[in-house]
Amino acid sequence: xxxxxxxxxxxxxxxxxxxxxxxxxxxxxxxxxxxxxxxxxxxxxxxxxxxxxxxxxxxxxxxxxxxxxxxxxxxxxxxxxxxxxxxxxxxxxxxxxxxxxxxxxxxxxxxxxxxxxxxxxxxxxxxxxxxxxxxxxxxxxxxxxxxxxxxxxxxxxxxxxxxxxxxxxxxxxxxxxxxxxxxxxxxxxxxxxxxxxxxxxxxxxxxxxxxxxxxxxxxxxxxxxxxxxxxxxxxxxxxxxxxxxxxxxxxxxxxxxxxxxxxxxxxxxxxxxxxxxxxxxxxxxxxxxxxxxxxxxxxxxxxxxxxxxxxxxxxxxxxxxxxxxxxxx
Length: 329
Known about the structure:
Elements: E1 14-16, E2 23-25, E3 27-30, H1 41-53, E4 58-60, H2 71-84, E5 92-97, H3 112-126, E6 131-136, H4 145-157, E7 161-167, H5 171-184, E8 188-192, H6 206-213, E9 216-220, H7 256-271, H8 276-284, E10 292-295, H9 300-308, H10 317-328
Helix pairs in contact: 1-2, 3-4, 4-5, 5-6, 7-10
């Protein structure tokens, strides 16, 4: 019988999401990898329980997470049933739709048919009446934005999600989507883009739009698929993601230029008493423009390290300039 830690809210930082009343933990847990049907259930269960004990209240999923697609939601549904059912009102559970899920013309992208059907399927897989946040996962070039946003509005009015968000949208499309949702009476709560020291595209306009529109942000891949950790400082290990068949990270990305920067950043992290991964999280959360950093994990210790990054002192102006010099090469 799982009983959550009585101190779970003592040390976590919770940030207000845009202009909403919702506060998210500074560190959130994503179930993109390591929670699928091919993975060990008890390991995923241990990670979710430990995350909640550390004050991580937000668990981020998508219809296509696994593998196979859909299985991460099924795994999370089992964990909810076994361990977290009595804590449902303390949890923020999100899911998404946009990528391929089933054959035919209604199994991906952004039509109302797809978005409504997909959320119904996600709720069944997780054993839920509603999710807290439902995202459109990627822009659809062939469906009017008005239809996609109307579908999100509809699902809020049906009580199947409390809030809605978007992911992977450009600054221009984000502004358009926000304006449509505002007119419908369902504000856009949050945007989920990728962001890290090595991928900074959101600084070129998107963050300004989010500030102006009052939209929060939760950034995925803050550790750049594991590059911004100590995993590759001394080469590519045989059991690493880069050495395996993963389509998400290849050896070609681990150039000597990139690894040279990471080694210098690692030295700076060590001088601060941090691991490389912890410095990367401190950096994306600097200045308060990012609501939450969304981490992935394959073991409990990685979650503990991520949460511990919040105990470090804020990056000084001098340290931030050092980081800029390193990244500029």
